[in-house]
Amino acid sequence: MFERDCAGCHGPRGEGLAEAFHPMVAAQHYRYLLRELVLIRDGLRGNSNPAMVQLVKSYAQADLEAVADHMAQLPPPDPKR
Hints:
Layout: H1 2-10, H2 30-41, H3 50-56, H4 61-73
């Protein structure tokens, strides 16, 4: 799911793209990522990118948990890049 729905904006390694306001998701805390995904899916996060809302609105809880787990396990980006 991450590769299909998230990597296009957040980067293949979850490194994010600050210039486009796509945050780094790699190595973030699982509970934080899951909470934010739930808020986005449920329309309760006011500053959500509309494209992301459309992507995750059909995700089941298990889908959100799987994506959050994947992102939390991505290694942090190399600060030298």
